[in-house]
Predict the 3D structure of the following.
Amino acid sequence: MPKVTDEHRAARRQQILMATLRCVAVEGLHRTTMADVIRESGLSAGAVYGYFKSKNDLILAIAEFGLALMDTELRGLAKDGNVPSPDEVTRQLTRAIVRQAESQEIDITKVVIAVWAEAVRDEGVRAIVSERIRTLRDSYAGLVSAQQAAGLVDPDADPLHVTQVMVGMLPGFILQRLVLQDVDPEGYADGLAALRR
Amino acid sequence: MPKVTDEHRAARRQQILMATLRCVAVEGLHRTTMADVIRESGLSAGAVYGYFKSKNDLILAIAEFGLALMDTELRGLAKDGNVPSPDEVTRQLTRAIVRQAESQEIDITKVVIAVWAEAVRDEGVRAIVSERIRTLRDSYAGLVSAQQAAGLVDPDADPLHVTQVMVGMLPGFILQRLVLQDVDPEGYADGLAALRR
């Protein structure tokens, strides 16, 4: 397939995904329909269905979009044999969240919360989301093991438990940022660092 | 007013609140209407409106219900001059969350997530919810100051930052419990304890 076609496909896919994010940010996930996304995208129904066969395909794409960002950040932190401390990881991940939220036309974190709410309500969405969060946790668990080997985290601890807490801090950051609007990456990471001294 | 009337009022109020929780757990908060709550409660419209004038009154009652549980737990932990460690507080609060989720006909944590999603989408709901979360954080901040005085947390840290992280761990616990269904209070508290050693 010629390269221009791949680029064209990627751009179209992104166009539909952004239309979905706009719809979800306003209407919530539950109320957003394929018809809404088609209208918002400015494309034909046939064009949209060529990329996403159902609303669940769109939800999967949103979940992957959000988690790919976290995963890329984690890989960047752990490269060249570098082992960052838990509070340093929290600092970089929350910075990445804010950067992403502020750089796009739509604050992706608002959409992420809509996806959580739908995952709790709907079993199909839950299956999609839980698999993706597990993938993120697996990447994180690798980092925790490296932190244990480097003496940054108690080597006798169960890496899963440490990972649950470390990943578990991120939703509360996102929520406090959106709802109370008084939290920032530096303070949040400093708070964790204080607990570790 | 005679005592029986107060009791009657409290029972009626609780009956309407439980009907609301059932509606929200199934439909989400956004789609639940006063008409749904009236139908589900089995009471007349006049009776329901006598207790809750609008959907926002119901949301406020849900937010207060959830946060009152946390607040009662925090007060219980800090009584008689006792100062629990951060991981002990996390252990007791997550235990209280699970106990409450499992003891009622409706898992209140599912409704809490619906309230978060609506708080992000709707400014009126956000005002209600942010005030209530701030109240919880204020109670928690008092505990953090006591932990600092007792040498359990770095006394030079900003108590607000420590509080943001400690409160910020709870949404991630609730989400992992509902979506991945593999987290429990003991592991979560142990994970935090490992980060503090």
In short: The radius of gyration of chain B is 19 Å. Chain B touches chain A through 57 residues (CB under 8 Å). The mean pLDDT of chain B is 91.
